[in-house]
Amino acid sequence: MSALHRSTCPHDCPDACGLLVEVQDGRAVAVRGDPDHPWSKGSLCPKVTRYHATVHAPSRLLTPLLRDGPKGLGAFRRASWDEAIEAIAARWRLILGEHGAEAILPYSYAGTMGLVQRNAGHAFFHALGASRLDRTICSPGQDAGWKALMGDTVAVDPEEASESDLVVLWGIDAVATNIHFIARAKAARARGGRILLVETYATPTAAVADRVFLVRPGSDGVLALGVMHVLAREGWVDRAFVAAHVQGYEDLAREVLPEWTPERTAEATGLTPAEVIALATELGRARAPFLRVGSGLSRYGNGSMNVRAIVCIPALLGAWAKRGGGALCSTSSSQAFDTSVVTREDFQPRPTRLVNMCRLGHALNELDGPRVMSLYVYNSNPAAVAPDQNAVLEGLAREDLFTVVHERFPTDTARFADVVLPATSTLEHSDLFRSYGQYAVQRTRAVIPPVGEARPNWEVFQLLARTMGLDHPFFRLSADDLVDLLLAKPAPLREGLDRAALEQGRAVSLRLPEGAKTRFRTPSGKIEILNPRLRHPLPRALPTHVEASRTQYPLRLLTAPSLHGLNSSFLQEREDLRKRAGPMVLRMSPSDAAERGLADGDLVQAWNELGEVAFTLEVTGNVPAGVIVAPGVRRLDDARGPRTVNALTSQRLTDEGAGSTFYDNAVDVRRAQ
Ligand SMILES: Nc1nc2c(c(=O)[nH]1)N[C@H]1C(S)=C(S)[C@@H](COP(=O)(O)OP(=O)(O)OC[C@H]3O[C@@H](n4cnc5c(=O)[nH]c(N)nc54)[C@H](O)[C@@H]3O)O[C@H]1N2
Ligand SMILES: Nc1nc2c(c(=O)[nH]1)N[C@H]1C(S)=C(S)[C@@H](COP(=O)(O)OP(=O)(O)OC[C@H]3O[C@@H](n4cnc5c(=O)[nH]c(N)nc54)[C@H](O)[C@@H]3O)O[C@H]1N2
Ligand code: SF4
Ligand SMILES: [Mo]
């Protein structure tokens, strides 16, 4: 007998698709899209159509493991949960006595997006008084750019894009990373609209665009200023909207825009002046342009400013006042839940040290007062995904560092652990989901029993709390209780939500308040092109040109997402997807290859001041000269050399938001010896 159960795809993806899981004898045997899901409507991306193969992958971790050999070799012996938890507690007690609680550092990100299991460790580490992690690896630069103008304005519903007459995919490879948005863009085209793409190379998404603009990496801020120069010059600015809803347009027009002529913009972006004018003309003439802004262009030294400049465009055009118009960086569904009921900042004895996760290498090797003596990793694979891999691996290899990794799979990080704990997947525990790319929410419950002896994050922190003597009644609540707490706290965005459907496990859409799109939640009540609160001296109160970082190397390296994986997930555990992704490739233009005497299929080394990484070269006309592309985050076992792509990325942070700069890299390439 088999039964069908609803669930959510838990991955760090803006779509948060609804799943229907077929269960037979306690095993997931098939997965398909939930046709009743308001956003994904029954379809899934190719990574998840066989999700049961991930859940029951032969490489799943089934029991706790204790290190049984030199650090980093991945040699372990099996252990019981009692033994593993006691080993952690014993070591932590010593560390607390000798170094204090701040010598313990949690490291987690978004292995699951569920609000309970994603945030499961916060209360525990707060109560312990451990160092706190600043979770900056993804897109705080983008958030800062958006917030500079828009404050806490509720983001536009992406469904509206299908009513736009011009959808601009700006720095987003949506065919790989936001596939259900593509359906909305295509719906707009079916009604006579157009799709434009602003990118650095011809991604898979280029095939669905009507026109593609390829810019020099990190130059989108300038492009936006150049576009606005033309909008102002041609009289395409919506004067009435600007007068009513925008602060500082006149300042921008007077102090910044004049210098960004199409010619100067072309020089800075690598486009032609005619292309700059063409992009501005399409935008200026559109009835209701919709800009879907990716976070790639924010992962630069000037990343926040790039976003800030782009988000000015719909303000000048009055797009916010038109059905189908606006700009979307990420949805505001986080405002639907107050996660502090789970994260419990109030448990901290005092505000403890905050460590930026993009600087893990620095934290493990250089941070003092106290030195980091224990790292607890869950929901993340920093040995692969964190920047400056050489520094991260050097830190993880420290003999005196006690590392615990709670994981579903034997990742590159788990290899360096002293204790490995097996984790459940979303099909095996309770949670609550919202999305950063659409407005559905869903409550999920286990649809199969835990695989092996795997345990959910929350249960492990309950065990650790008990063993470490943290006896607050909060730690005795179940994951379902925590979901109930999240749902009990009222929030305006959840008004009128169909609770009965939610309790049945269905995905339910949040209803945005009437007129939310033009209710600008900033101190002035207007879109703040001029933001007097930004700490920088003028002219940063206005969007302006900021250089991306530069180094002495000639090629810009884009560490782009892979179609077949999601950060390091999928490509580490699924043989079928690994095969589809092929070897670890580096894509290069024919002219750059010829200049270096390199040919398609060659084994090459990309190198800079941080490290060197071996790739199989793929020579392709999809990549412009001066740019190279390394898709996906692979596992060390797949590498032709001893390192993967993040040995070339740096711990530098964005201009605002202290975010990652994964795309801001300069390297050179030579034939491997
Ligand atoms: N298949 C797949 N899906 C994923 C992921 C994945 O790894 N694989 N990752 C997930 C995660 S964690 C996230 S945060 C989201 C990411 O989603 P987003 O960051 O919103 O979008 P991406 O599609 O990753 O955007 C990166 C794109 O930006 C381009 N880009 C880089 N620099 C510039 C620039 O200077 N200018 C312009 N115009 N474009 C630039 C890159 O070439 C790349 O195609 O996707 C999620 N979904
Ligand atoms: N070169 C390069 N590097 C990048 C990026 C890039 O574009 N280029 N993108 C960056 C971005 S945007 C992000 S967000 C980060 C993301 O980096 P991570 O958040 O580390 O993402 P994943 O690689 O998917 O690793 C998540 C891990 O969590 C585990 N996991 C899943 N569910 C659970 C659970 O319930 N419990 C526990 N304990 N573990 C679980 C999975 O098995 C997986 O190994 O990577 C960044 N790194
Ligand atoms: S990874 Fe994204 S697109 Fe694929 S099934 Fe999950 S939520 Fe949907
Ligand atoms: Mo991300």
Characterization of the model:
This protein folds into 4 domains: 2-55, Phosphorylase Kinase, domain 1, CATH 3.30.200; 65-138 and 352-505, 3-Layer(aba) Sandwich (Rossmann fold); 140-329 and 515-528, Dimethylsulfoxide Reductase, domain 2; 545-671, Beta Barrel (Barwin-like endoglucanases), CATH 2.40.40.20. It has a 6-stranded mixed beta sheet, with helices on one face. The protein has a 6-stranded mixed β-barrel with strand order 22-26-23-25-24-27. A 5-stranded parallel beta sheet has the order 10-9-8-12-13, with helices on both faces. 57% of the residues are buried. Helix 5 (140-150) packs parallel to helix 13 (303-317), helix 8 (220-233) runs antiparallel to helix 11 (262-269) and helix 8 packs parallel to helix 13 (303-317). Strand 12, helix 13 (303-317) and strand 13 form a beta-alpha-beta unit. It is 28% helix and 18% strand. The termini are far apart. By secondary structure, it is α/β, with parallel strands linked by helices. The protein is globular. The chain binds ligand MGD (2 copies), iron/sulfur cluster and molybdenum atom. One ligand MGD binds next to helix 6 and strand 9. One ligand MGD binds next to strand 16.
Strand order in the largest sheet:
5-4-17-16-15-6
State the name of the first-level CATH class of the largest domain: Alpha Beta
What can be said about the biggest beta sheet? 6 strands, mixed
Overall number of strands: 27
Structural class: alpha/beta
Number of domains: 4
Overall outline:
globular
Strand content: 15-25%
Distinct bound molecules: ligand MGD, iron/sulfur cluster, molybdenum atom
The name CATH uses for the topology of the largest domain is Rossmann fold
